[in-house]
Amino acid sequence: MKFTRINKLNGELCIPGDKSVSHRSIMLGSLAEGITEVHGFLNSADCMASMNCFRNMGIDISYDGNIVTINGKGLHGLKESPVTLDVGNSGTTTRLMSGILAAQDFTSRITGDASICKRPMKRIMTPLSLMGADITSELENDCTPLIIKGKKLHGISYNSPVASAQVKSCILLAGLYAAGETSVTEPYISRNHTELMFDSFGVPVQVSGNTVTVKPADKLYGQKIVVPGDISSAAYFIVAGLITPNSSITIKNVGINPTRDGIIEVVKKMGGNITFSNISSDVGEPTADITIRTSSLKGCVIEGEIIPKLIDEIPIIAVLACFAEGTTIIKDAAELKVKESNRIDMMVDNLAAMGADITATDDGMIINGGKTLHGTTVDCKLDHRIAMSFSIAGLNADGETKIIGSEIINTSYPGFFDDLASIMN
Ligand code: SPQ
């Protein structure tokens, strides 16, 4: 894909469903008894990987392109997959599903693409092993392929060294099957979609400060789930609207769960013109329509407990910071190094190649905004967020920006380029 400078973005768009919520709907729907209907499911490669894994374990799941219908078989209804479970590019599928598989009465093998095979799995192997699980890395490098031999588990109280919803959710899912109570304490609160969805499926969850506790479940009840639009996908348009001259964009039905809304706080802190309408929490998670207009921005410091609330938005926030006056400092975000790519290096190296004044640090980056960007070639290395971030940068840079491997956007937002084109006229 190639991008050149534009001088206006205008219009309205509806962002596809939230990726995190979509994955969880497949998993809990499969473990529930009876029918779960999912409205607004994200039809992306990552979420389809979750769907196909559970189909391979004997769950009847139909999808008409609009509604996903899951015929749940209960907590003990999964069957051994006749094939290796292929998670593609999806860390969420790998880590959450491992928590479930650890407690089954069969053996599973999980693998995925070149990016997933480099991502650290020790973070789930350690707590699952403490619960009695038998989980090994086939190549003994703490990455996928993983071999999980189902075992009887027992509850633990786990102090997670990282604020990670995937680690937390993996342990809580295993906790559904474990003898006794299971609790996870995080350094900062990460996204809470698993806890919210447990609650709607009838599993009591206790939250106290940064600690979440579950007891073994008897039964999950099939549900109707309404998936909100994904704020992580909306983030590209939020930033595009702020930095592109003469722009006004309304993004409809965006999920604004307080454990995910860090980008909104940052945009406000930077002086961005962002307004909300149609705020709703009628069904499922809270949503709003968000309107963004071209703004004069100033740099800010982003650190501490806000980081898990915007971890996936940091690549596009780095682009935003290049268009702000003054310095933006991003700290406490070392987790970026173990995403689909090393997102600190990818953002710093490629934005520097575009002429930005940006420096990598051990746990983030420092950006002195206000330099004019010029086009370059970016190899996005199987990272959808890098592809989308540099598309927006390219629309606000001199010359041509070429993105190699841009089809990786299919993992989270297959319609991204079409949606972008729809507001360029
Ligand atoms: O699923 P995957 O590949 O890990 O996707 C990413 C993303 O950018 O879309 C991370 F690279 O999102 C994670 C997110 O970073 C999705 C997620 C979840 O659904 O629980 C939690 C976050 O990861 P973590 O490691 O902080 O728990």
Number of strands: 23
Strand count, sense and barrel status of the largest sheet are: 4 strands, mixed
Main structural class:
alpha/beta
Number of helices: 12
Distance, first to last CA:
18 Å
Bin the helical content: 25-40%
What percentage of the residues does DSSP assign to strands (E)? 15-25%
Mean pLDDT: 98
Shape: globular
Rg from Cα: 21 Å
List ligands, each type once.
ligand SPQ
Walk across the major sheet and give the strand order: 2-15-17-16
Poorly predicted regions: none
Describe this structure in words.
This protein is of the alpha/beta class and 425 residues long. It has helices at 19-31, 45-56, 91-101, 122-130, 165-175, 193-200, 231-243, 262-269, 314-322, 343-353, 384-394, 416-422, and strands at 2-3, 10-14, 33-39, 60-63, 67-73, 85-86, 107-111, 134-137, 146-149, 157-159, 182-185, 205-208, 211-214, 224-226, 248-255, 273-280, 287-293, 301-302, 327-330, 357-361, 364-368, 377-379, 401-404. It starts with a strand and ends with a helix. The chain is 29% helix and 24% strand. The model has no long low-confidence stretch (mean pLDDT 98). Bound molecules: ligand SPQ.
